[in-house]
Structure formats: C-alpha cells, structure tokens
C-alpha cells in the first residue's frame, strides 16, 4: 500500500475518534463517506465500495466505542440502566440489518445514508423540545427501540448516536447523559454489525487483497489505532460545552457528511 493511503487512514482515524468522543456517534457517520471516497480512489470494485465502507466502519467502531465509552463513564455520563435494556434489541436488529444491506446495491445504500443523515441533522437544527411529561419507555419498549436503532445503524454503519441521542433527549434524558449512553450503546452495535458484514462478505468475488468479508484490514487497523487516542479529547470537550453548542456541532457534522456521500454517489 502506498504511503499516501496510509496517511489518509491515519488522519481519518484522528477525526473519527475526536467526533466519536464529542458527539457519541461512534465515528461511522464520518468513516462511511470518507472510506467510500478513498476506496474508489484506490480502484476497488465499484459494486463493493459501500459494502466495504460499511463493514470496515462497523469493525473500526468497536475500538472507537470502547475508548469513547471509557471516557464518558469516567465523567459519570453513562446511564447503564438504559444500556442494559436496549442491548438485546440492538444485537438482533444490527445483525439482521447487515443481511439486508449486503443484498442492496451500493448506490441505493449511499443515497439512504445521505438522506438519513440530512433528516437527523434537520431535527437537531430545528431543536425540537421534548415534552416535559415524556419519560423513557419500559424494558420491553426499550428493547424494541434498540432493535430499530440497530437495524438502521447497520444500514448506515453508525454507532447509533444519530438515533439514540435525539430519542433520549426527547425522553428528557440530559444531553450529556444521552451522549455518554449513546457511546456505550455503540459497542454492541459495532460488535454485531462487524460480525454480520464479515459473514455476509465472506467468499464474495473481486474483493481487494487484505479484505476479510466486507472488512478491509489496513483501513480498520490504522483508523482504530489513532481514533482510540483522540476519542478522550472529544469526550472531555463534550462536558465543557453547553447543550446548544453540542446540538449545532452535531447537526453541522451530519449535514456535511450527507452532502459528501451524495456527491460521491452522483460523482461516480
């Protein structure tokens, strides 16, 4: 592999880790459009571009989520009662979602990613206020919510933050707690998603060298290496900024990423 690609993956890892810690998003929202662009520039098969980006992102989120989770837990921001309730649904929904994504062509997947990110960003920009009386659902309801978050997360290879953070703030969970809990939820999403994409891509023809299923190992290792170091810096900043600033940063990042992914699709 040429030095320029090694450097690109290292820089990507730095951004992924920082924003994962800052926003509790797991980093997949940044990795998917960027990896799609990098894989295309390296001449990877077009029919596997987005699947490889999704699978590699999910695998990389494992290490990023662990680093982000530890940082937020140190600040006492993780609601472990919520994590325990949503995890069973998360595992089932995410694993099932990889089977759906693996059977959809790259272009529709990329368009869904872009539109989904734009929709979530709009909701954050509008700053919809939660009803004062609204509370989190019970254990069964949270399991169902987890399945839905996991399914969509697998289709766009995110750590669930763009769904779980708005949901929890809607249910009157403090923003800092919502971000910290989202970081913890990202770990089971990443584990189930990585396993699903590895299994679904196993034996696929024309995959690039150093791929294991839909996971490209060089990108995985380099992004994970750097992101685990930069995630704590983002997490520390998350506990110093006011809620309004966090929401604007969150929305701005998602808007930029949705535009990038759509540009990649129509530009190819």
Features:
mainly alpha; globular; 268 residues; 77% helix; 1% strand
Structural class: mainly alpha
Beta fraction? under 5%
Number of DSSP strand runs:
2
Overall geometry comes to globular
- The CA-CA distance between the termini, in Å, is 23 Å
Number of domains: 1
| Integer average pLDDT | 82
- In the sheet with the most strands, the strands line up as 1-2
**How many whole angstroms does the radius of gyration measure?**
17 Å
In short:
This protein has ten helices and two strands; from the N terminus they run ααααααααββαα.
What does this structure look like?
The protein is mostly helical. It has one domain. Helices cover 77% and strands 1% of the residues. α1 (3-23) packs antiparallel against α2 (28-41) and α7 packs antiparallel against α8. The model has no long low-confidence stretch (mean pLDDT 82).
Spell out the blueprint of helices and strands:
Elements: H1 3-23, H2 28-41, H3 49-74, H4 80-101, H5 106-126, H6 139-156, H7 161-170, H8 175-201, E1 211-212, E2 215-216, H9 217-238, H10 243-267
Antiparallel strand pairs: 1-2
Helix pairs in contact: 1-2, 1-3, 1-9, 2-3, 2-10, 3-8, 3-9, 4-6, 4-8, 5-10, 7-8
